[in-house]
Design goal:
Elements (H helix, E strand, L loop, with lengths): L1 E5 L5 E6 L23 H7 L12 E6 L3 H10 L3 E6 L14 H5 L3 E4 L3 H18 L6 H5 L5 H10 L1 H7 L4 H17 L1
Length: about 190
């Protein structure tokens, strides 16, 4: 999972990624949360920017998946108004909470799914592969039941260790993304 905070001029002012399983030894001090269940990508993007020089209310937060309930709460609390995400999260997605209480509604947070099917497929596939690698006994059955495209391809990536082989071969990010797009095209043909 990844997230970026972009200012009104389109400049990236902060980046974040899930660091739940990281030790932190290679990380800059006090600029992210790591090695903890709260070390989500959106949280790290929200704490990693200079609050004294950036008006967060004018920023857009982009995330690879629909923010979870923890992150939606943080987004509301810090004041981000514009949230865009690549794919919905049928298990932990929290955008519905923006309508749950008067406090959440008054925040004026506007979430939008980006609507790019190939990128959504790749995001889901990578998320599934990562969860299978990192989380003991994780099962994607709820994602499959929700009809998430990319779940089976993510399982295949994990089962064949394909992503590790691509990384070890020195494949560029463009090559990895093309491989994921090929997986999407093959799935669309079936």
């Amino acid at each position: 999972m990844g997230a970026v905070l972009v200012d009104r001029d389109g400049r990236i002012v902060s980046r974040g990624r899930n660091r739940i399983f990281e030790t932190g030894s290679e990380l800059p001090e006090n600029q992210c949360v790591f090695g903890h269940r709260l070390a989500h990508a959106e949280i790290n993007a929200l704490i990693g920017f200079d609050h004294t020089t950036t008006n967060v209310r004018e920023c857009t937060l982009y995330a690879t998946l629909e923010p979870c309930v923890l992150c939606i709460g943080a987004i509301r609390m810090i004041g981000v108004k514009d949230v865009r995400y690549v794919a919905p999260d049928p298990v932990a997605g929290g955008v519905a909470l923006l309508e749950a209480t008067d406090f959440m509604r008054r925040g004026g947070v506007v979430p939008r799914e980006l609507g790019h099917p190939v990128v959504a497929f790749a995001s889901i596939a990578l998320n599934v592969a990562a969860h299978l690698e990192l989380v003991a006994k994780w099962q994607p059955d709820r994602w499959q039941a929700a009809g998430q495209r990319g779940v089976e391809f993510g399982e295949q990536l994990y089962a064949t260790d394909e992503l590790r082989r691509l990384a070890e071969s020195g494949a560029s990010i463009e090559q990895v993304l093309e491989h994921l797009a090929d997986g999407h095209r093959a799935k669309e043909r079936t």
